[in-house]
Amino acid sequence: MASKPLNNIWIRRQQCPCGDWKCYIRLDGDESTTTTYNNATKSEIEPSTTPSPSPSSSSPLFTPYVGQIFRTDDEAFEYYTAFARRNGFSIRKARSTESQNLGVYRRDFVCYRSGFNQPRKKANVEHPRERKSVRCGCDAKLYLSKEIVAANGATQWYVSQFSNVHNHVLLEDEHVRLLPAYRKIQQCDQERILLLSKAGFPVNRIVKLLELERGGGGVELPFIEKDVRNFVRACKKSVQESDALLNERRESDLMELLESCKVFVGERGDVGFVYEFTSDESGRVESLAWAYGECVQGYSVFGDVVVFDTSYRSVTYGLILGVFFGMDGNGNAVLLGCVLLQDESCRSFAWALQTFVRFMRGGHPQTIVTDIDRGLKDAVERELPNTNHVVFMWHVVSKLGSWFSQTLGSHYDEFRAGFEMLCRAGSVEEFEQQWDLLISRFGLVPDRHAALLYSCRATWSPCYIRQHFLAQTMTPEFSLSIDSFLKRIVAGPSCMQALLEEVSVAASLSKQITPRVPYPSMKTCMPMEDHARAVLTPYAFSVLQNEMVLSLQYAVAEMANGPHIVHHFKKMERECCVFWNPENEEIHCSCKEFEHSGILCRHSLRVLAVKNCFHIPEQYFLVRWRQESSLVSEENQNGMGIGDDDCVQTFQSLTETLLTESMVSKDRLDYTNQELSALIDRVRNVAPANTCISHDC
Ligand SMILES: [Zn+2]
Ligand SMILES: [Zn+2]
Ligand SMILES: [Zn+2]
């Protein structure tokens, strides 16, 4: 049966690693993330497509006036929506008028109670629940007209009529947020709702539960029971009809995905492309893993630290998306492999790791970085026994609120401060001691989340992971780089068959949009700096250069028996002990920075300088940070600019002139703004020379 592929819906996993399915994680900052439902299902699922700006938005909001100018009609709508929300009503789009030359040239926005309800058509007369309409003929409105403002046809919108006179009572904030236009189920609540609904909870109990989780009272939820009901129904509908049919579709879609794997090797000519899958006794695909030719190449240089991200799940297919990343010499995330797993069991994760290692020709990474997950932890221990397992600190910190803020109430902030202190513990003994104190002080001895954290402390606590090699993966920039990569995958036009293409495009895109960082200018007169500049990538060089600059603030004292004690000239910090062996040019510092990040520390650099060593010993330039290891091809580099420095300078001087000229008057400034936005759009449409991005899906 040739059927239209299912709409693949990705959501962020929120199950709590404690194992209790009723417990879930609300990520800090999730409120602002946009939903990953793609356009086709968006309008069905969201209670309203109206943008609902937060009422606490800090921009000053003036009453609209006749003659007010907007760049676009959408901008005007957003503005009026925000104004309405603060003033106790909502708006809707009414009439628009269109002409051949101008397109839409007039738009009317009106108060939600404008007009009168149409008498129901005959067929609906017997409808048992005749609802009372809120429409009462209110005349509050904002009408917009479009005008041409420049010879090139550029247009703008102005307010042609405005009235804020209402013939009804305006609502208080606690009621206004319940108007349909402002109600919205945020992404962070969506999975929770689906999960509870799947577990058989009726909608009214789901709402009660969500209220309780937010501290009760009912006033906190940005949606009402009806929205939840609609949402659940729309999801069911978008995932379509009966389970039997759905399973059949899932099966055929996954088979097709498998087919596209074959195509990748054959027609697409990616000879290095590899894939493997597992199937159950009736031949149905369970899990699938794949890697592109480039991944294997990347792993050979950057496979020392691997990040295994498992934060997204497909609602449609019930599959977990796992993505393996490495960090390249420029500090960016590079794709190393992908898996789709049927569940998050230890068995599935173990298969993922085994397969990944096979793809990468048997090499185990030194360090693997993941989220907290029991199944994953066991799988890593089993499959990669000699690999260090690390959990990103932000995976821990982002869960603290969900775990402890309700239990601790007003003491939570104090707890957070204590936790941060704990993370600064200098040794394992110190950590253990502080942990006991913290847990007993806040009465968390029997708490299951505290127990979970403690049981995996060796993977996240800085004093434990200090000894593991992590390159520069612990930086916020690197997390962001992974995050935007994943968002590109899940936001794409997503049917399962396009996933290989999708991921491959995201991988090549991330290479292109990565700005080529120019080398920073020289900051010290140390010959070591010249040496490093000649060998390292700009990124690695800038990290090392920073250490060099700071090294100048350190004093060195040589002990009789060999080691050098290095300390800051005034800050009270722990002293470092540096061993230098001029024969084999080996240098070791007690801070372990080189072992941890692959970049020499300021203390070692200081000792080298004091010992009249004017170059950096070769073994301290790791292959992964060297220019020759960069994966960016020559062709690609040439495509980026004609002599980077010249190009940048020309740009800077042009923009400076533009700014000076534009600041002369408001008209000029507006004009520049408008033209620049258009220009940026046009530039984005120019395809990079060496890629062809197409979706036939
Ligand atoms: Zn939990
Ligand atoms: Zn009104
Ligand atoms: Zn050091």
UniProtKB/TrEMBL annotation:
Main location per the UniProt record: nucleus
Keyword tags: Metal-binding, Nucleus, Zinc, Zinc-finger
A UniProt-annotated Pfam family: HTH_FAR1
Localization: Nucleus
Record InterPro entries: FAR1_DNA_bnd_dom, FHY3/FAR1, HTH_FAR1-11-like, MULE_transposase_dom, Znf_PMZ, Znf_SWIM
Residue stretches of biased makeup (Low complexity): 47-60
Protein name per the record: Protein FAR1-RELATED SEQUENCE
Natural source organism: Raphanus sativus (Radish)
